[in-house]
Design brief:
CATH architecture of the largest domain: Alpha-Beta Barrel
Distance between the termini: 65 Å
CATH class of the largest domain: Alpha Beta
Number of domains: 2
Radius of gyration: 21 Å
Structural class: alpha/beta
Order of helices and strands: HHEEHEHHEHEHEHEHEH
């Protein structure tokens, strides 16, 4: 009788877990290499060139974004701005300014919720409304998407693909945590002490009551230039991977 009860409990548990896994794709997550090899998610780009991509989340902001744009322009740096849709609706002129200076715009959701807690319809709404906000402000469509907090599951990956959006995260060793306003030097040290070819660096152009990001860039950019680095958009960085893959195939 005890064995029968145990078998029933195990059977019910397995059935319930299977149902949970079907309903919650986050439970089916595989390791990073699986998604990288398939091109589902990009954390960084393997390249022999000394190029890196700075990315800025959570903007646009009427005070901090122009300061960051000014520093980037001073050092001929191009970057990618992952914008929040409701802020695009409030500050469309700043998004247009980003594009006019040769930077790239990516989708970072409309309200910046935690996607892990959202169903398919809500995720799709967040993406679609932001695409519409970007299009209305600039006449262009974003090709890149970064989920708030970097959270992802199979729903998020599938919806990104269905909407022709490449899911972009960041190099694990290049999370500056500037959103915590940890101090200019800590932001500087994080980038300079860990930089590698093909890095995607995570920063923010909207941090409440803080200008540490723009101040840190004034130190980071000239130092990296001295080391021979150039600064490109994420899409430009991705094209270098395609070029390198093509070169490897041709020479084999």
């Amino acid at each position: 009788m005890l064995k029968l009860k145990t078998l029933l409990i195990v059977s019910v548990t397995v059935t319930l877990y299977a149902g949970y896994a079907d309903a919650h794709p986050a439970s089916q997550l595989r390791d990073r290499s699986y998604y990288e090899e398939r091109g589902d998610i990009v954390w960084e780009v393997p390249t022999e060139k000394k190029t890196i991509a700075f990315t800025f989340d959570d903007g646009p902001d009427q005070r901090q974004t122009p300061k960051i744009l000014e520093v980037l322009e001073q050092y001929q740096a191009k970057a990618t701005f992952f914008v929040v849709g409701d802020r695009v609706d409030r500050f469309p002129e700043i998004v247009r300014m980003e594009l006019s200076k040769g930077h790239e715009i990516g989708n970072h959701s409309y309200h910046h919720p935690s996607f892990q807690n959202l169903g398919r319809d809500s995720i799709l709404s967040e993406l679609t409304k932001t695409q519409q906000a970007i299009s209305q402000a600039t006449g262009q469509t974003a090709l890149l998407f970064r989920p708030p907090g970097g959270s992802y599951n199979q729903y998020i990956i599938n919806i990104s693909k269905e909407n022709n959006l490449q899911l972009i995260l960041w190099s694990w060793h290049q999370d500056t945590k500037d959103w915590k306003a940890p101090g200019v030097q800590r932001i500087v040290n994080k980038v300079l002490n860990n930089v590698r070819n093909g890095d995607i660096i995570l920063m923010h152009d909207y941090v409440y009551n803080s200008s540490q990001t723009s101040e840190a860039l004034k130190i980071i950019l000239p130092e990296l230039q001295k080391r021979g680095y150039s600064f490109v958009t994420v899409s430009q960085l991705l094209s270098q991977k395609d070029d390198q893959d093509h070169h490897i195939k041709v020479t084999q």
